[in-house]
Specification:
mainly alpha, single chain, Arc Repressor Mutant, subunit A, 5 helices, two-stranded antiparallel ribbon, about 130 residues, 2 strands
Length: about 130
Amino acid sequence: MSITWNDNAPIYRQLRDRVVAMILDGVLKQGDALPSVRQVAADFQLNPITVSKAYQELVDEQLVEKRRGLGMYVSEGAHKALLQSEREHFLREEWPMLYARLKRMGLDLKTLMDHAQSNQDEKPAGAKS
């Protein structure tokens, strides 16, 4: 997990968001163990309390479960729950501003889809999408 911290949000929140992204991207799957608090703290030179706070948020959201003596694991249904909440957040918070900007620029769905398709077609063989 490679992370660049920014000053716009607390580090524990950025770490929590990174784990969420890993679950959404399928890097962490249901039942997978999260790296230990100590390991993450050492790898990224963080205070273990910061890592614990990020992990606790994930537990509070029922995305991760603590298994006493074993560590933290991605909860059953975490991906599905995250996908639903992320979609709702996007549609409620991000889409209205994005849609207004697209309208101001005179861009419609067909133009966007055509552009996306032409970019896909131009990628060299073996390139990741």
